[in-house]
């Protein structure tokens, strides 16, 4: 009997931009139902890695599968099981929250109901508000709702709380925790230590395009002989991690 494929399976991934090796022999496996963190400084290769996983960039080498599917060769199938919220959302600023959700819901044969998406991210009161009038936290929560419109089994969330105030950040975290309760696998790209400690089951530390450690947050702290995850990152990478603004 064949075992179920991993939610995300990456082997020996590489990507070069000119003379710079942005992703250097990255391998990782994300199991179904995990919240898996990808942690590193700006320029560590985090976003490039997840864009390749999502099929948005072509790798120079290596193997990527999402629930056993090739994100480049089987793009249509992958779109039905993978939701993606990237750091820069390019949404029509004049459309309302409800209009944007209705637009995305229309892309899928069995979408999550629009009202359910609004409730999930706490934006029902803003359903008639234009995107340009939303706060930064509300825009981020809307981006999550759009990524979940097709009932994905895997969601990639990239720097989803950067720039948010503490109250807005905690609301977004609660949304991510609800995804885990719904058995959605989450790949969470971040450089916020508190976010990793609260949400992630396991985390890969990236530095200069390579994975330098992969463990639970507590395991990383123990491996580094550190008092907390901030100290563990410095010990393992030799670098200070920027705080989210």
From TrEMBL:
Pfam families (UniProt xref): ABC_tran
Keywords: Antibiotic resistance, ATP-binding, Cell membrane, Membrane, Nucleotide-binding, Translocase, Transport
Top-level taxon in the UniProt lineage: Bacteria
InterPro entries, sorted: AAA+_ATPase (IPR003593), ABC_transporter-like_ATP-bd (IPR003439), ABC_transporter-like_CS (IPR017871), ABC_transporter_ATP-binding (IPR050763), P-loop_NTPase (IPR027417)
Location, primary (coarse class): membrane
Compartments it resides in: Cell membrane
A GO MF term: ATP hydrolysis activity
PROSITE patterns found in the cross-reference section: ABC_TRANSPORTER_1, ABC_TRANSPORTER_2
Residue ranges crossing the lipid bilayer per the database entry: none
GO CC annotations on file: plasma membrane
Topology within the bilayer: Peripheral membrane protein
GO biological process assignments: response to antibiotic
Domain spans labelled ABC transporter: 8-233
Designated name of the protein: ABC-2 type transport system ATP-binding protein
Organism: Nonomuraea maritima
